[in-house]
Specification:
2 strands, 2 domains, globular, 197 residues, single chain, two-stranded antiparallel sheet, mainly alpha
């Protein structure tokens, strides 16, 4: 069933359990990000935490690398190539690029919190400072306006995209034992509906 359209301030999506577990086994990057979100409105059952506990065994750095590269390329092409750009969109390109750097630098599963990623990865100091200025502007509530492109950030982005297009990740495949997800599915049914399988 497709998600309901966005109404007012609510943007709600979800999957039924079997589909979510299939996507988890494939290391679906959006699902992994949702599970790691620092913002949790409600979590009534243990299923999400159990998935977080299993994440290291199922997280595919290869799948995530291609996902983030595709995202960065698309957003760069659509929003940041002109002389005048939508400044907010730098986050939509920098976050996936920095996520790949996070994995390349052996830092593990990519956190959802952009600030954590920025602080954790090694980048040239001028680039880090330019990103920090964008973050401060956003925190100050400034409208992320249209404006002149940031030559330093564009140069960094273009160099990284060129490098990553030729990059072939050589990460080992996750073990992904399906029996653990079968067990989790049955335990979730028992927890939610109150009967043993």
């Amino acid at each position: 069933m497709p998600p309901d359209p966005i109404t007012d301030d609510m943007d709600v999506n979800g999957w039924e359990s079997r589909k979510a577990l299939r996507l988890f086994r494939k290391s679906n990057p959006p699902l992994m990000e949702w599970l790691l979100s620092p913002i949790v409105y409600q979590e009534r059952f243990s299923t999400a935490q159990r998935l977080r506990d299993l994440m290291v065994q199922y997280y595919s750095y290869t799948t995530s690398t291609y996902h983030y590269l595709h995202m960065a390329e698309g957003n760069y092409r659509d929003y940041l190539r002109g002389d005048e750009v939508w400044v907010k969109k730098y986050f939509y390109v920098l976050r996936p690029i920095l996520a790949i750097l996070w994995m390349e630098q052996g830092l593990g599963v990519v956190p959802t919190d952009f600030n954590v990623v920025v602080e954790g990865v090694e980048t040239p100091q001028p680039v880090r400072e330019a990103i920090q200025r964008l973050i401060e502007e956003k925190k100050a509530g400034a409208e992320m306006r249209h404006g002149s492109r940031n030559a330093l950030l564009n140069e960094f982005i273009e160099a990284e995209l060129a490098r990553l297009r030729a990059y072939r990740p050589a990460y080992s495949r996750p073990l992904a034992p399906i029996a653990l997800l079968d067990d989790l599915f049955l335990a979730s049914l028992e927890e939610v509906w109150g009967f043993e399988m």
